Amino acid sequence: MDRGTVGSANRGRLQVESRTEGLSEIVTPAGELDHHTADLLSEPLSAALDAGRTRLVIDCSQLEFCDSTGLNVMLGARLRAEAAGGGVHLAGMLPVVARVFEITGAEAVFTVHDSLEDALSDALPE
Description:
By secondary structure, the chain is α/β, with parallel strands linked by helices. It has helices spanning about 40-50, 70-85, 95-105, 115-120; strands at about 5-10, 15-20, 25-35, 55-60, 65, 85-90, 110-115.
């Protein structure tokens, strides 16, 4: 596996780690994503896109809460990634977070995977 950059940020209720693995930039938010913490997710997503990495995987398996601000961060990253020929993949959503995506209809515009492993295997050449 190719492992490139690794980073992390923390602001109280949310910690975000990011790393490059193969063709994917994996961003893992852990905790509560809301208007107070959204920049912690926005910054590594933007940095990856600025660096030309357009296949973003957000590992939601540790995300305990997501409000509309967090959802908008992910939607914004999706628009930028798709404009550059890539996309945003969501992996391992807990039921409480999945419900937000279901209620808003946002689940229909993302590629959703049951696990991070599924999201990464989807990027492997056949």
